[in-house]
Write a structure and sequence with these properties.
heterodimer, A: mainly alpha, 65% helix, flat, B: alpha/beta, Rossmann fold, 5 helices, 5 strands, globular
C-alpha cells in the first residue's frame, strides 16, 4: 500500500493510533487489505475507549 | 484514492482530496438522480471497482453489506444494485444487516454515533464485515454503519465506489 495513501488516512489520528494502524496495515499482505482495515478499526476503537 | 476520516477507516476507490470532486463521482450522482426520477440512464462502469475489491481480498471477509437506505427500499436501492452487481462478478453474496430504513439526523449524531443505525439484525460477533457504498461524501454513512457493527462485536471495514 502506498505510503501517501496511509498519510492521508491517518491525518486526524494521534501519534499512537498512527503507529498502531500503520503497523497493522503495512505488515499485512496487500491481498488482505480489507481484513487489515477491519483490524485497524478495532484497534482504533480500543484506543478511543469505544465500548465494545 | 484515499481512506478514512477522524471517526474511522474506510476506502474510496475513485476518491480524491478534496472529495466531492471527480468525473466518476459525477457519473454516479447523475445515475442516482435519474434512478430517483425513474428515467433510464446507463449505469456507471464498475470494472475497476471489482478489480480493486478482488485485489485487496474481499473474498476473505465473512460478510459484505450495504448501509441501510434512508429513503429508498431494498430492491430499488442504487447502492445495493451497484454493490450486488460488483459482488456478482466475484461470485459473492450481499448480506443485508439492517432490514429497515434509517435516516441520519443531527439528533442521532449528538447522542452516540454507534446508535445512528440500529444494531445489525444478524450476529456479527467476531466476524469481519465489509460495508460497501456507492458514494462517499463525508463518510458519515460508512462510519455510522461501521460503528454499529463495532459495538455489536464485529470487525468492520468500509469501502465506497466514488
Amino acid at each position: 500500500m502506498p505510503v501517501d495513501e496511509l498519510d492521508v488516512a491517518m491525518d486526524n489520528f494521534t501519534k499512537d493510533e498512527k503507529r498502531l494502524s500503520s503497523l497493522l496495515i503495512l505488515h499485512y499482505d496487500p491481498r488482505r487489505f480489507f481484513a487489515a482495515l477491519a483490524a485497524a478499526n478495532v484497534a482504533r476503537a480500543i484506543y478511543r475507549h469505544v465500548d465494545r | 484514492m484515499w481512506i478514512g476520516n477522524r471517526r474511522g477507516l474506510y476506502f474510496v476507490v475513485h476518491g480524491s482530496m478534496p472529495n466531492r470532486i471527480g468525473k466518476r463521482r459525477d457519473q454516479v450522482v447523475e445515475w442516482k438522480k435519474a434512478f430517483n426520477h425513474q428515467r433510464a440512464l446507463v449505469e456507471p462502469p464498475i470494472t475497476e471497482f471489482v478489480e480493486f475489491l478482488h485485489e485487496r481480498g474481499i473474498g476473505q471477509m465473512d460478510m459484505v453489506t450495504v448501509p441501510p437506505p434512508s429513503f429508498h427500499d431494498y430492491g430499488a436501492y442504487p447502492a445495493q444494485m451497484l454493490c450486488e452487481r460488483a459482488l456478482g462478478a466475484l461470485g459473492l453474496n450481499l448480506v443485508l444487516l439492517w432490514p429497515d430504513r434509517y435516516a441520519k439526523s443531527g439528533k442521532h449524531w449528538s447522542a452516540n454515533i454507534s446508535k445512528v443505525y440500529a444494531p445489525p439484525a444478524l450476529d456479527v460477533r467476531g466476524k469481519t464485515v465489509l460495508v460497501l457504498d456507492d458514494i462517499c461524501t463525508t463518510g458519515n454513512t460508512l462510519v455510522a454503519a461501521m460503528a454499529s457493527i463495532l459495538v455489536a462485536g464485529g470487525y468492520p471495514a468500509g469501502c465506497a465506489y466514488a
